[in-house]
Design goal:
With 413 residues, the chain is of the alpha/beta class. The protein contains eleven helices and eleven strands. The chain folds into two domains: 228 residues, Aspartate Aminotransferase, domain 2; 94 residues, Aspartate Aminotransferase, domain 1.
Length: 413
């Protein structure tokens, strides 16, 4: 059972103020050594009355730096109050949502899914080099053709080859036969170690990969591998629409996860989450960062503590029960949209537990794409798909207007 308690606004305010009281106060403390300060007060005044009722905005103005990884070793003591809040929200995400055992994971609030995915690939590349004596050319990334472009970025940045696995055009499922053939070719070319990336909600389709397909084929092919789950799209959605799903840390084969808070959770842009099992993140410990307490284990280095507090505040504003209700509402709206598309005989893909509906391109849809800001698979004239994402701001009234317009366009054909 996914559970964490809701906190009322006054309790949230007290917790955030207590955290800020433990942090350095650049306005009053004798803090001479930090290359940082509060936000510039000419542009971000700290004496306006509305801040008294906006504790998260107080944190933005205070400008805590959460450099490092606070689940591992030491951290900068100047920001220990809000660092503790980051650890609290990571516990909700890792333990309550993704079923990790307490103390069994490391992680941090990142800048988004792209950073988190690159962090994972970097960590595993170094793991294989440090623990297995691997050469970079012996390591390969394995991910589906629907996988987010950040995996291609990681391949390019880290000089690791990448296998793009075909998926079925109708179901978006990984093709096991194609995967087996690609792994056999990789083995012949000298690959011994694999970093597999399974998706919990692909960017274009919201499709869910079965990570055990990768595990089965990699094991049969004799690869030493690590499995990462990119849940940037579905991490705050799928565990609530499909609470019995096995894609979490209760599966011993899954070693790390990416989750985006600036999508369904509606945190400020530039807010993601990286989680991994213990005894992995030390493979990217940067000892050259000697002036940072505990060194640094993150790709980005300095991070805004305010983003971590924003995620904390959103999750504790709802609690588990109300977040389930929120996802149920989005599910209901997405179900309604799909029923209307079925009635009009428009082809689409949708995972039944996700809020993404991807329509096959037709002239009627193409004519409405700009008006309703439908996102194409490719920004070119020959795109095959357009997607709708039923986010919190997308009401039934919005969807009804789209369906009515689609029906009118269809009548003109």
């Amino acid at each position: 059972m996914i559970h964490w308690n809701k906190l009322l606004p006054n309790a949230q305010m007290e917790r955030i103020r207590a955290a800020l009281a433990e942090n350095v106060n650049f306005a009053s403390d004798h803090s001479l050594g930090y290359p940082a300060s509060m936000l510039d007060t000419r542009t971000f005044p700290d004496n306006v009355s509305f801040l008294d009722h906006s504790p998260v905005l107080q944190v933005f103005v205070a400008n805590p730096n959460h450099i490092g990884c606070h689940t591992f070793g030491d951290s900068e003591t100047a920001f220990k109050g809000t660092q503790q809040m980051e650890k609290e929200v990571l516990a909700v995400i890792a333990e309550s949502i993704f079923k990790a055992e307490p103390g069994s994971y490391d992680g941090y609030i990142a800048s988004g899914g792209t950073e988190s995915n690159i962090q994972a690939i970097w960590m595993y590349r170094n793991y294989f080099m440090n623990h297995c004596g691997a050469l970079p050319e012996q390591i390969v990334i394995v991910a589906s053709e629907d996988t987010h472009y950040s995996i291609a970025k990681a391949s390019n940045l880290l000089l690791i080859d990448r296998i793009s696995v075909p998926v079925d055009d109708q179901t978006r499922n990984i093709d096991p036969a194609a995967l087996a053939a690609l792994l056999a070719e990789a083995k012949k070319s000298g690959k011994k170690y694999a970093i597999a990336v399974a998706n919990m909600g692909t960017t274009m389709f919201g499709s869910i990969d079965d990570p055990l397909v990768y595990c089965s084929e990699l094991e049969q092919s004799g690869f030493d591998y690590k499995l990462h789950v990119d849940a940037a799209y579905g991490g705050f959605y799928y565990p609530f629409s499909q609470p019995g799903n096995p894609i979490n840390f209760s599966n011993a084969k899954i070693s790390s996860m990416t989750i985006d808070a600036h999508k369904v959770l509606q945190a400020p842009y530039g807010t993601g989450v990286f989680l991994c099992r213990k005894d992995l993140i030390d493979n990217v410990l940067t000892r050259e960062a000697g002036y940072v307490a505990g060194f640094d284990l993150t790709l980005v280095g300095s991070r805004s503590g305010a983003n971590a507090v924003a995620v904390w505040s959103i999750l504790f504003s709802y609690g588990a029960h109300e977040w389930f209700e929120r996802i149920a509402v989005l599910q209901m709206r997405t179900d309604w949209l799909c029923k209307q598309l079925d009635r009009l005989n428009f082809a689409y893909f949708r995972d039944a537990a996700m809020n993404v509906v991807t329509l096959r391109a037709r002239p009627e849809i193409e004519r409405l794409a700009d008006e309703f800001t439908l996102v194409p698979q490719e920004h070119s004239s020959d795109t095959r798909w357009y997607k709708i994402v039923v986010m919190g701001h997308v009401s039934l009234a919005h969807l009804e207007r789209f369906i009515n317009a689609l029906e009118s366009e269809s009548a003109l054909v």
